[in-house]
Amino acid sequence: MTGEIFVFVDEEELFNLMKDLDCLYCRNPVTASKHHLKKRHLRFAIYYKDSGIGKFSIPCYCADGGHGRSHWHCPMCTKILQRTKDYKIHITNHGVEMTDKSTVELQPTTVLLETLQTDNEDRTAGNKSACQKCGIHFTTTSNLRRHERLQHGHDQQPMLCIDAKNAIYVTPKDLHGPRVPIHIRKSFALQILLCELEECWDFMKAQAQRGNPGKECRHLVRTNHARHYVPPPPLCVNSLEEMTDKHLLSKSEKQECQEMNSRACLEGVDCVYPIFWEEHELSERCIYFSVYTDLKDKWCQFGRTRVSFDTKSGNWKCLCEHKRNHCVHKYLSMWWLFQERPELLQNALDINTESVDVLEEVVLDAEDVVQMSPGGDDLC
Ligand SMILES: [Zn+2]
Ligand SMILES: [Zn+2]
Ligand SMILES: [Zn+2]
Ligand SMILES: [Zn+2]
Ligand SMILES: [Zn+2]
Ligand SMILES: [Zn+2]
Question: Which part of the chain is the C2H2-type domain (predicted)?
């Protein structure tokens, strides 16, 4: 079953995949009619969000499962899991977020109805409706484009300029899971072409040796559709005072924050750049910040580090791990959040008090959790 599709964004995609053919997901030959797909597969579908996009997986009954037993193929690695519960844990570890069917962005049945209604307006002509890569037909161009993007990795990941002066951008590291940002630098004027990831260095070096100097890694190429620099709301001293009054920061921590902020200001860059991939996007669980460090090191090659805040667990993380308990970058990000989105900080505080219930659930599932997720349930 390698090369098959195990993740879908709407029912139409699944129906069109095997029109009038035998079901690819059943061991014994059976026509993949809508009735069959609904009864045997869609009824048990698992819904989740991957990078904010609603998707679903269906159970498979192919020979890989042995004796036609139902099983799940992971769409992100090659693993096959027998138990639905294990499959859910497995893909959660890839970074997707389980969604209740009622809250999923794409309600398969509604999507189907909408497709039928808009059919006449958006119908594509002839060959244009078929995917060039796998031949699946679609009734609308938008569905075809979505299929191309999701199934064949047409990379439309965002790229934001966060420092125009030094030509620094941020972009998600991976195509799947939480959109963890990495920094890149690209400027033709300055003759700079750099990606933070070591694997990308290796890739570009190897390409240069093969006679392709200037070949860009998968992140650098995204600058073609980069969003221009937009200044974020600047940090204000008043909000920092308020934080110290509320004992969220000590006097020395406050001092440190102010010093770092002034050094960034002197350099003419933003001390804290909050990374919201899309405008007003708050549906994602983790919030990321690019923070000025005033030094260059392995963990901050371009003079900036990454701080993440998990809005569910309330945990903060910074790339400068060696200063675990004392990290000015976290305080600076907290300052920005306290000033601009205080409700998000409050959410985390509220949830922390309920964590006893969560712990109990974890204990019940301890076997699986320990096996599948050694890092606990932190997402960022
Ligand atoms: Zn089937
Ligand atoms: Zn299978
Ligand atoms: Zn997997
Ligand atoms: Zn295709
Ligand atoms: Zn790269
Ligand atoms: Zn730090």
Answer: 129-157
Q: How far apart, in whole angstroms, are the C-alpha atoms of residue 214 and residue 263?
A: 33
Residue type, 28: N
| Alpha carbon 234 to its chain's center | 26
49 Cβ partners below 8 Å, 6+ apart?
55, 96, 97, 99, 104, 105
**64 CA distance to ligand 2 middle (Å):** 5
Report DSSP state, residue 39.
I
For the chain, give the mean pLDDT: 79
Q: Which ligand is nearest to the CA of 290?
A: 6
Strand partners, 130: 137
Place of tokens 């002839």: 126
Enumerate residue ranges in the chain where pLDDT < 70: 1-3, 67-68, 100-128, 149-156, 278-283, 321-325, 347-380
**Å from CA of 168 to ligand 3 middle:** 33
Give the pLDDT of residue 70.
87
CA of 233 from ligand 6 middle (Å) equals: 21
Q: How far is the CA of 203 from the centre of ligand 5 (A)?
A: 9
In angstroms, how far is CA 124 from the centroid of its own chain?
31
First-residue to last-residue Cα distance in the chain: 32
Ligand 6 mean position, distance from CA 293 (Å): 8
| 146 alpha carbon, closest ligand | 4
User: CA-CA distance, 79 to 69, in Å (whole number)?
Assistant: 16
* Alpha carbons 61 and 263: distance in angstroms, whole number: 61
Q: 76 CA to middle of ligand 3, Å?
A: 5
Closest-approaching ligand to the CA atom of 41: 1
User: Alpha-carbon distance 159 to 221, whole Å?
Assistant: 10
- In the reported structure, the alpha carbon of residue 164 is separated from the centroid of ligand 6 by a whole-number distance in angstroms of 23
Q: What confidence score (pLDDT) does residue 194 get?
A: 93
Residues in the chain: 380
Burial of 171: CB neighbours in 10 Å, binned 0-12, 13-18, 19+: buried
Asked if residues 95 and 176 have their Cβ atoms less than 8 Å apart, the reply is: yes
State the Cα–Cα distance between residues 261 and 164, nearest whole angstrom. 18
